[in-house]
Amino acid sequence: MEENLPITDTLPESIAEQEKIWYGIGETAEALGVSASTLRFWEKEFDLIKPRKNKKGDRFYSKNDIAILRTIQYLTKVKGFTIQGAKTAIKTNFMKEAETAAIVDTLTQIKEKLLSVKAMLK
Hints:
The chain has a three-stranded antiparallel sheet. Helix 4 (about 65-80) packs across helix 5 (about 85-120). The chain has five helices and three strands, in the order αβααββαα. The chain has one domain: Multidrug-efflux Transporter Regulator, Chain: A, Domain 2. The protein has helices spanning about 15, 25-30, 35-45, 65-80, 85-120; strands at about 25, 50-55, 60. Helices cover about 65% and strands about 5% of the residues. Strand 2 (about 50-55) and strand 3 (about 60) form a beta hairpin.
């Protein structure tokens, strides 16, 4: 898989709207709805994730890293894949899985907005 995949359209909305190049681990974890320790674990398990680290060891993720993390999150948390299953799915058809993850996230956001509108109308 190439270093800079054209997957920025599969980013969480909170990240996609920003102009930043690097995102801290807390900010990334919050955008994905997982803990920072989960991100560190995934970094060890998936060699595709290569956050930049400063001298203190703080991790900074690129938009490409975040798109990969989002796909891993979708495969493990939504589809229920094991880590090994997610690795296999990513190796065989990463772009399809990334696009599916983005679609599911978009539909979830639309559902939440519609439910809030419904609640306001009651």
